[in-house]
Amino acid sequence: MARLTDGDDDESAADSDSILESQLNRRNYLKLGAMAASTALSAGVASAASGPEERFGIQWDRVVNAVDDLGMDPNGNEPIDNQLDSAYESGTLIEFPPGEYLATETQYWNDGVSRFGMVGTGSSHKDVQFVFPSGNNGEKYRFLEITSGDHHVLKNFSIQQTDDDTTTADIWMINDDGGLIEDVEWLGRTPTDNNARRQLLAYDCSSVDGVNVARRVYMREGAELPGYPDGVAGIRVQGGSVGEIRLVDCHIEQRGSSSFRATHTRGVLRVEGGLFKNNDNTNMRISAGDHPSKTSWIKGATVIMDADNLNEHARDGDSLDSPEGLRIDSTGNGYAGVLIEDCDFIFKSCPTSRGIVSSPTWAGHGGFTLRNCRIQNDTSVQTIHADSVDTDTADKPWGVNLENVSITGSTRSQPAGAAVCIDNDRNGSTVQNSCIHFPNGDVDGVLVNDATNCEILDSNINVTGQATVFSGADVDTSNITSSDTCPLPSADGSTSDDSSTTDDSTDSTTDSTDSTTDSTTEPLPNEIRLVGTGTTTQYEFTVTDSLQASGDTIEEWDDISGGTATGWITTDGVEDAYTFSGDIDSFSFLEGECEIYVNGEQVTESTVTDATTDSSTDGSTDSTDDSTTDSTTDSTDLSHELRLVGTGTQTQYEFTVSDALEASGDTVETWDTIDGTSASGWITTAGVEDTFNFAGSVTSFSFVEGEAEIYVDGEQVTESTVTDATTDDSTDSNTDGSTDSTDDSTTDSTDSQNELRLVGTGAETQYEVTVSGTLEASGDTIEQWDDVSESSATGWVTTEGAEDTFTFTGTITSLSFLQGEAEVYVNGTRVDPAVFSLPNTLVVDGDGTETTYEFMVSGDILNDPLVGPIESDDSVTNGKVKGSVTDNVDAFRFSGDIRKMNLTGDAALTFEDNDG
Question: Does the pLDDT at position 505 exceed 60?
Answer without folding.
Answer: no
